[in-house]
Write a structure and sequence with these properties.
Elements lengths: L3 E5 L6 H12 L2 E4 H14 L7 H10 L2 E6 L2 E6 L2 E2 L7 H11 L2 H17 L2 E5 L2 H5 L5 E6 L2 H15 L7 H17 L12 E4 L5 H15 L1
Parallel strand pairs: 1-6, 1-7, 2-6, 7-8
Antiparallel strand pairs: 3-4, 4-5
Helix pairs in contact: 1-9, 2-4, 2-5, 3-5, 4-8, 7-8
């Protein structure tokens, strides 16, 4: 019998970082569900598909072979066997992934794949609808959040780290966080929301280690 841990939350809250740390500590597989939506977004942009053309996007996601790998505590994602792990973190993908994530046919296709992976191994999966839709019966559910200001600071630091030449202003990053929050929370299909039985953790004033310790304590109590 496998064990599943669902971690949800808005952009920049630190859920992916915490999920990776937790998976490493427990020796579970880590799956970044958002990376799958980013993969579809990247491929759509590379193929110059109009993101308003749901028919073309539907064809793309049905034919696209997405594979994920978690080895030596490193997550990798492939599209048609090409390693796109770094490419999916571009500013262009950041701007458009929420549009792709609103489309029902894409969500349906990717949710099935995510569920299949969770049936095969102990897993820590993060995203925006893991506890509410993908893994509604997960053994543990956490909702990781933080203030918009703090999330924008974290995202801005990531951008600078990836590209020292980036001239993107902090104000622009914060506006994008706000925009993504609105889109993710108000989309028709599987909107971002806290599952009723999820434990909420505000990471605004907590270190990564403090958040991990808190989660591990909760899991230990539930054993």
């Amino acid at each position: 019998m496998t064990i599943s841990i669902a971690i949800d939350g808005p952009a920049g809250a630190g859920k992916s970082t915490i999920a990776k740390m937790l998976a490493k500590k427990l020796n579970y597989t880590y799956l970044d569900s958002g990376a799958m939506y980013r993969a579809v977004t990247l491929c759509a942009l590379d193929k110059d598909i109009n993101l308003a053309n749901k028919e073309k996007l539907s064809e793309l996601v049905k034919l696209l072979k997405i594979d994920v790998e978690y080895k030596n505590n490193e997550f990798k994602i492939y599209a048609d066997k090409d390693d796109i792990t770094n490419k999916i973190r571009s500013d262009e993908v950041d701007k458009n992934v929420s549009t792709i994530a609103q489309i029902k046919i894409i969500r349906d296709e990717l949710v099935e794949k995510q569920r299949k992976i969770a049936q095969e191994k102990n897993i820590v999966m993060d995203g925006r609808d893991i506890g509410t839709r993908v893994l509604p019966n997960a053994d543990y559910k956490f909702y990781i959040t933080a203030s918009v200001q703090e999330r924008a600071i974290r995202r801005y630091k990531d951008i600078i780290k990836r590209d020292e030449e980036s001239d993107k202003a902090f104000k622009e990053v914060k506006q994008e966080i706000d925009r993504r929050d609105k889109i993710d929370s108000n989309r028709e299909h599987s909107p971002l929301k806290k599952a009723e039985d999820a434990i909420e953790i505000d990471t605004t004033d907590l270190t990564k280690k403090e958040v991990l310790t808190k989660i591990l304590h909760i899991i230990k109590k539930g054993e």
